[in-house]
Amino acid sequence: MSMSQGYPLPASEAEVARLRMQSDLFRGDAESMLDRIGVRPGWRCLDLCCGVGGITDLLSRRVGLDGEVIGLDMDAWKLEVARDWARANSLDNVRYIEGDAFDSGLPPASFDLVHTRFALGVIPGGVGMLDHILSLVRPGGVVFLEEADIGTLICVPGYRAWDRAVDAMTRVFDQVGADLELGRKLFALLRRGGLRELRVRPCVHALRAGQPMMLHIPTTLEVMRGSVLSMGLMTESELDHVLAELRRHLSEPETLTISYAMIQVTGRVPGP
Ligand SMILES: C[S@@+](CC[C@H](N)C(=O)[O-])C[C@H]1O[C@@H](n2cnc3c(N)ncnc32)[C@H](O)[C@@H]1O
User: Is there an atom of ligand 1 within 6 Å of 75 CB?
Assistant: First the structure.
């Protein structure tokens, strides 16, 4: 298979902001799992579909200058954003390369750890990437997947603009064959893939006005504006109205949202 056709989140400044707000919210969760895995100085790690940086900063600090981190993405523009960010943060052991996560051309069995986040679930046919991921990890090495699961996503009090926004977002993802419930399925996928020492950790956050991730749903819908309009899910004026109403509701001091779950699963490839 080649580069993802129909990936629903085109590169833009809004998409960069969206990826950063997700990274910031789930940073502590990623740190915690990397500690449990025991990533060590000298390790060679790959962050597949790293976007504007992914967790390459967290890996960089752990593997040190004797180790190496590669961030791979198909989007050259996002990789430039990642390189600027890495330079600004002195991530001297990180390289960003353009490539296809289904067939990267990287040497087989050459990584101590391969990670992806928010990739298998949102990239059309993304689960098909798993075989390639497994082939890149050395015997005894670690696979670390983090995928969203929409099952926990709620807004209290409920609100019509929230329902309309979530419905439109879900339809766009459905149309390209993405799976917003992939998080809950990762355990079985890795088990079937023959991985050992499986660990599962769901991460969910409560959000309120003022926290950047509170605006995640309207920001995602804004990034998908082209698909929402071309699929006829809303007219431009309806979309603008829904976005304005939703942003207003989410800025109310009494509104609470519960994030989608980010389900982490790790496993070890059989070997020494
Ligand atoms: C939702 S973003 C997640 C980025 C990053 N992992 C993070 O957590 O911030 C998914 C990324 O997958 C990339 N992508 C989509 N299809 C790809 C493919 N076939 N090969 C490599 N990257 C791909 C997109 O360009 C995008 O940057």
Answer: yes
**Any ligand 1 atom below 6 A from CB of 227:** no
- CATH number, position 241: 3.40.50.150
Q: Are strands 196-203 and 206-208 parallel, antiparallel or unpaired?
A: unpaired
25 Cα to the center of ligand 1, angstroms? 18
Q: How many domains does the chain have?
A: 1
Find the domain containing 209 and state its range. 13-268
In order along its 272 residues, the chain shows pLDDT tens digits of 334 567 888 899 999 999 999 999 999 999 999 999 999 999 999 999 999 999 999 999 999 999 999 999 999 999 999 999 999 999 999 999 999 999 999 999 999 999 999 999 999 899 999 999 999 999 999 999 999 999 999 999 999 999 999 999 999 999 988 999 999 999 999 999 999 999 999 999 999 999 999 999 999 999 999 999 999 999 999 999 999 999 999 999 999 999 999 999 999 999 87
- Contact (Cβ atoms closer than 8 angstroms) between residue 124 and residue 182: no
Rounded Cα distance between 163 and 250, Å, is 13
- Cβ of 153 less than 6 Å from ligand 1: no
Global pTM value = 0.96
